[in-house]
Fold:
Amino acid sequence: MRKALFLYNPESGRGHIARNVADIVRIFADGGWDLIPQKIDFAANPFDFHPDIERVVVAGGDGTVNFAVNRMRERNLTLELGIIPAGTANDFAGIIGMDRDPLEAARQIVGGEIEHLDCGVVNGLHFVNIFSFGIFTTTSQHTPDKQKHRFGKLAYLAEGTKELYRMHAIPLHVRTEREEFDTEVLMCLVFNGETAGGFRLANTSSVRDGVFDCLMLEKRNFLRSCWAMLLCVCGKHPRGVRYLQAATLQITSPRNEPTDVDGQRGAQFPLDVRCLPGLLRVVCPPKKADNAPTSHTEK
Structure:
């Protein structure tokens, strides 16, 4: 049987994952996989003790996937990556179409197809979905895990209101492969993926195109900035939000602003951000045939 490592956090999904470990192992066994369950220890590299695995299955949100990817890259591994959504925000899993039910997600992985998807890296830290700094972008870091598990996205909203009191402009010098400019921003989002906290903010972004979609909320007065943020959340590109696509960004600032990668503590300024096309070997749900019949349930 082929071997795979199953990394899970017992607290993820309000304990739902821990209750389903045995069933997930059985689903993989039926598909010809020897799945080795292991509780996540964020202080250790889980790949040091499993040299013969071909695949890692991660149960968690974007931060947990980020942890697994960075530990793999530390050991120069390119294992197949399967994701069972079990976090507060599951943006990357949502992009590739993973089911929110853990058992169904396990079946998708067993019968899935390997796709080569883009990955971002900033100052040596890899990210699968988003790199960011400025207002609201470090909210996930400041929200206690107990509140995340208990209240879900509401915990982010409660913590995020405190950010308004700390809102300030960040002077930047930005250079990409296409342009160079100076600006002052309240927030900067560099998307490898397509969504942040479930909101589709980067309408043209793709994890398969080799470039980032970047949104920069430029400094305006308070009301105009709030209005621009609201329009941005609604999927618009209002004046006051600079939009660009780039494969590389070099960003400097006189401020050493805190940053975030996939909900975790990020890199320090100056920033060297690069897209690594096709680096990740991700197990995606099998594609449905165009002429496949659609089932309808009548009530």
In short: The first strand starts at residue 2 and ends at 8. Confidence is low (pLDDT under 50) at residues 294-299.
